[in-house]
Amino acid sequence: MNFFYNLLISVFNALLPVIGVISPKLTLFVKGRRTVFEVLEKSLKIEDRVIWFHCASLGEYEQGVPVMEMMKSTYPDHKILVTFFSPSGYEVKKNSTLADVIVYLPIDTMTNARKFIKLVQPELAVFVKYEFWPNYLMELKKNVIPITIISAAFREDQAFFRWYGGFMRNALKTVDHFFVQDATSKGLLNQVGFSNVTVSGDTRFDRVSHQIEMNNQVDFISEFIGDRLCIVIGSSWTEDEEVFLDFVNQVANDLCFIIAPHEIKDNGVQSLKQKLTKKTVLFSEKEGKNLNDYQVFVMNTIGYLSRVYSYADIAYVGGAMGTSGLHNILEPATFGIPIIIGQHFEKFGEAKQLQKLAGLFSISNASEFSNIMNKLIENKKYRQQTGMIAGHFINSNTGATDIIVKYLADNLDTT
User: Fold this and answer.
1) Least C-beta-crowded within 10 Å: which of 74, 205, 350, 373?
2) Is domain 2-201+399-410 annotated with CATH 3.40.50.11720?
3) 2-201+399-410 matches 211-395 in fold
4) pLDDT band for position 393 (50/70/90)?
5) Which pLDDT belongs to residue 28?
């Protein structure tokens, strides 16, 4: 199996220049990897002490942030290296000041893994949640570099737990410790022979809990809302539009809506605006306008959503009406507001937990969306009680970062 994996990954690596012409995203995927080793050679010196965090994409990066921040604060003389697999993570965070170096992770060939580890020589390697690249893991183990997986969530249908998953289980044997989100993940690992597992919880709870302590003021949002009840629709896709558009168009004008589409390309945003019959303004058009005259504000920009949720009385979080995957429900939950999502959230444990607590509602069509929305709007007490459940859910699940950082500190040579 090891031979076939390396053969396939080498073929994929060789075909990357051809694959890169298929789409703009794949072009970024290919182009961004061309200069990784050059950047590392320029950015890292032989005497640098490096802590390496790998994140598949943006969501994993956000999970890693609390741990990165605490490690950076505790060990200011060490350099933080962050690698991404996906352009959707790298392109958004490539200029972040949290890390000293941010690059794509070269494809997992044996040659790339050897060259990367030789250049970086990390004192610790921290993989966030997903992505277990066998050649990198094996190379780290050969160099006696501690490997930690944090905020991991395992499912029974993953290859590690199937009869054919021996190769991937062998890769996991290189890991020194797993910090998992829940007891189910620990149980699955225990069943296949891993005892080096701690249920620490999800570091995203620590991440979002800090948001409420920050300055979330956004002047143009305050101007837009005024004293109206505000509904925020975050990270929406076209499948989500099908369930909320009729409600937005037909509801009374004393409500206001902020819509933050996941894709902010101009054609998609203009299409959304054309479907809205309420008076609508885009972020890109807001200058010089009396924003309080509008009922709908479309955020065709990035970087504001976590603060915008602080203004919401109710939040709808997109992604679960289709197959793209549910977006972050913890960001609005931390502000103590009711949350509505689509129907496909089986792989999102936090959503299932919050639904059981009655702090989250799942809908499958426009009628269900309207029914729950009307109930939350008309019954202030019900809305507030539901929001309190969401807020308590966040507060009762914090603390993973402290557990993880204590372990990392114990495994970091500070001499």
Assistant:
1) 74
2) yes
3) yes
4) very high
5) 79
